[in-house]
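dude i think i finally got it to work??
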Amino acid sequence: MRKSFRGASLAVSALALIGFISSSPAIAEKKAEMSPLEEGKELAFNTKDGNCLACHLIAGGEQAGNIGPPLIAMKARFPDKAVLKAQIADPRAKNPNTIMPPFGPHGVLSAKEIDLVTDFIYTL
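look at this
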């Protein structure tokens, strides 16, 4: 009985992996069709990458956190987009005691991804 369960489990795992691998080109194609703002939004809302929603309220986001301030009126709060980018990349520079993760230095987001997230957040 154990052997048949193990065999079935391996077969299901293999099928799932094949399904994921075969869908990867579709995912890559979808990303190629996205605008930079859409890519930034996807990163900001992605629970494995930017995950801004874990701490911030963002229009259009679900189950937003309330640890950080709501991300609204960003152009008024950050007239200089470079200051916003620096805040996203490494908020410790301005506040060493912050609980916001340093996305750049910790390698959570690449420099390009930080640019994409900054561009999206700046539109809010």
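Residues 10-18, 20-24 have pLDDT under 50 and may be disordered.
im so relieved honestly
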